[in-house]
Amino acid sequence: MTIQIPGAGNLPAALTTFVGRRADLAEVRRRLGTTRLLTLTGAGGVGKTRLALVVAAASAADFADGVWLVDLAPVRDPESAANATATALGVPDLGTRPVIDQLAAFLMRRGPLIVLDNCEHLVDACAELAHRLLSASPGLRILTTSRQALGIYGEHVVAVPPLAPDDAVELLRDRTTAVRPEFRITDGNRAQVLRLCDDLDRLPLAIELAASRLRTLTVDEALNRLEDRFKLLVNGSRVARPHQRTLRGLIDWSHELCTPAERLLWNRLSVFADDFGLDAAEAVCAGDGIGRDEVFELLDRLVLQSVVLPCEREGLQRYRLLETIRRYGRERLAESGEEQRIRRRHHTFCLALAERIADGWYGPGQLESLTRMRAEYANLRAALDQGGEPQATLELAAALRFHWCEGGFLGEGRHRLDQALAAAPEPTPARARALWVAAWIAVLQRDHEAAYGRLDEAAELGERLADRVVCAHVTSLRGTLALFGGRLQEAVPLLEEAVAAHKGTDEEIGAVYALILLATAQSHLGDPRTTQTCRQAVALAEAHDERLVRAHAQWTLGYDAWMRGDLKEAALMIRTALENERGFTDYLRVALMLEQLAWVTAAGGEHPRAARLLGAARALWQDIDTPISTFGPHMAQQHAQCEEEIVRTLGPAAYEELLAEGGHHRCPDDAIAFALRAEHESEPTLTAAVPSPLTRREQEVAALVAEGMSNRQIASALGRSPRTVDGHVENILAKLDFGSRARIASWWTANQAVTS
Asked: Is the bond preceding 162 in cis, omega lying within 30 degrees of 0?
């Protein structure tokens, strides 16, 4: 899940200087300070987006909950405007309510600045979205860019004019010297430069495109060629040429001046709904006139011509076309007759990426995989939307299962799968996979009836196709439903069967979730096998260098320790699990871990700290609109017992005050930091140096265990065999009388000053 509030926001870093517009900048900032909805209008290419971004960046200090850009250019379906906004803000879509309702509830207690960019093709949807969000959040402000106003009550409109003459000249100089350092504006050429800027209607985009041509042309040459072109456009009438025709004529000219290969790449790049990576450009655009090894060089040449812009998303190097440039390329792509072929390549690339991530999910690199899928989200949506072969769409919807379920997009994932399943009813392996994924999503959304319906069909189809992986997932999810429904005696044999079924497939790691849920059920039933089940889950996760599942297994070990009354072991295990959750911003698991840590803390008599932890957990539950009872009535009962104990000890007023204090830690990583800081502060500080029982090599291994490394990773770091490291870890456990690696990590953290 990708929540980022609170924080500075997601504004892209500017790659070029912002030139001129001092008066416009001051006026927009002033108006933004006095209205909650401000719309910048103007012709395409006039610079609305850049002005909005500069204003937003300059206003960042005024918004404690961040400044957020929502680029609506890739959005084609009006109903997806709210989804795009939630995605940009990182609001998790976990419930069954419409996304706009979840977004409004999330913003109710927050006051960010949201920039809705490129609204003109979604005016009605954006008007509804703005009205709903502003009504829900008194502290929210919205800045939009559009060729026309939204037309709702309370909206203030600023028309963005072309650049002033001096600003236009300065922009031309700035952009030209970037590609031709020796370029100068002198008394001898200033009049021609002014005339060139006037002929370009002083539109920033037109000036930037023209500046790229001054790399090889003189100002006079560029001016003469443009004048000839514009005469053809307007039959010699300067008045008859509107701004948009000026821009179109200049883009025509830029396209014609490209080499055939550059034009071909420009056209094909337009298939991307948003920014893209080099690997995507190579996979989709190479062939039939462009060699794969030529793509990077051609891309670089288009960057020099201001056709393609380099950018960054989620820390990844990317490229993009401005919407005006992209639409032009798409027109040319359609005219070429190869649009459908390039769109199929685009879908094939997206499917291959999704399947590669799904197949390699259980192992290192999960955080990077989620990051990549977030970066590609607009392209993934476009691939799902483009129609074509229904089975291929179904395959893509199912392959994105970790994006839906671990990335925080349950609502959209369910909608996409429902659509794809309805369009492809044939009894294929793709349908069998999609059915159990749809059931998984329904389980997480607390819709047990829908989950059982999907599982019944998946079971029948899995057996017919002899698909053991599908059958194993069906059994595991049935056990999950029994557990979450409070039917523990029913859950245990189902989950035991699921463990055995998963181990009989090529996806042995799939057994780890079944082991975790089995241990939870066993723990509540007082089964003495619980601890051994937990350790099997941890060992299986560590064998695959798996971090998320390892965190879940460690948390379950902590739960088992708490149920056995070993509070120290429970706290250590939960703390280690929280450490492994850093960066994933997983609301559900972090909220559950905070809850459990609060129960352990209260049982140890530290009621004020337990109340704060419950407050941090409550804030996460509220943000995702999920009650703890989702995970079974036994969980709700334990929460209630902890709460009653705290209230009985501290009183209701003090409890509410401490809850509110803990609730200030809203996003998962912030809540984790708070919980670990509080846990650390509660531990006794060693004041006397105690000789370490470990050898120097064992100390090195312990330090790397504390960093979260697996034995295989430690072996690689130290240049030793995995078997040697296994032996060191066993010796450390024996010398310190510990039963888990988590105890080693906590011991090292507390004693490293002594043992180093």
From this structure: no
**CB burial readout 12-33, b (16+ within 10 A) else e:** eeeeeebbbbeebeeebbebbe
316-320 and 113-117 beta bridge pairing: unpaired
For residues 390 and 392, what is the distance between their CA atoms, to the nearest angstrom? 5
726 vs 118, more confident: 118
Residue 376: which pLDDT band, with cuts at 50, 70 and 90?
very high
Is pTM, for the whole model, over 0.85? no
User: DSSP class of residue 144?
Assistant: E
* In the block, residue with structure tokens 């009962």: 637
- According to the model, what pLDDT value does residue 627 have? 85
Residue type, 315: G
Tell me how far CA of residue 656 lies from CA of 190, 209, 611, 612, 635, in angstroms.
69, 60, 8, 9, 21
What is the DSSP secondary structure assignment for residue 93, as one 8-state letter?
B
- For residue 62, the one-letter residue type is D
Sign of CA dihedral 672, 676, 679, 681: negative
C-beta atoms surrounding 78 within 10 Å = 16
pLDDT of residue 3: 37
User: pLDDT (tens digit, 9 = 90+) per residue, 131-145?
Assistant: 999 999 999 999 999
Cβ count near 423 (within 10 Å)? 13
Contact (CB, 8 A) for 317 and 277: yes
How far is Cα 445 from Cα 95, in angstroms, rounded to an integer? 6
d(CA 617, CA 599): 12
Q: What is the DSSP track for 394-433?
A: HHHHHHTHHHHHTTTBHHHHHHHHHHHHHH--S--HHHHH
pLDDT over 70 percentage in the chain: 92
Which pair of tokens denotes residue 518? 């089995």
Residue pair 61/51 in contact (Cβ under 8 Å)? The answer is: no
Closest CA to 495 of 441, 447, 536: 536
CA 615 to chain centre: 25
Buried b (16+ CB within 10 A) or exposed e, 556-572: bbbbbbbbeebbebbbb
Query: How many whole angstroms separate alpha carbon 689 and alpha carbon 122?
Result: 67
Q: Do the strands 316-320 and 309-313 form a parallel or antiparallel pair, or are they unpaired?
A: antiparallel
The three state secondary structure string of 320-336 is ECCHHHHHHHHHHHHHH
Interval 516-562: pLDDT, tens = 999 989 988 888 898 899 888 888 888 887 788 888 888 888 888 88
**Largest CA-CA distance found in the chain, in angstroms, rounded:** 92
584's CB contacts (< 8 A; 6+ apart) are 1, 366, 367, 370, 406, 548, 668
* Helix pair 633-650, 587-603: axis angle to 10 deg: 50
**By C-alpha distance, which of 272, 371, 366 is closest to 319?**
272
| Torsion (CA) 690, 694, 700, 705 in degrees, nearest 10 | -90
pLDDT(639) > 90: yes
Q: In angstroms, rounded to a whole number, what is the distance separating the alpha carbons of residues 557 and 499?
A: 18
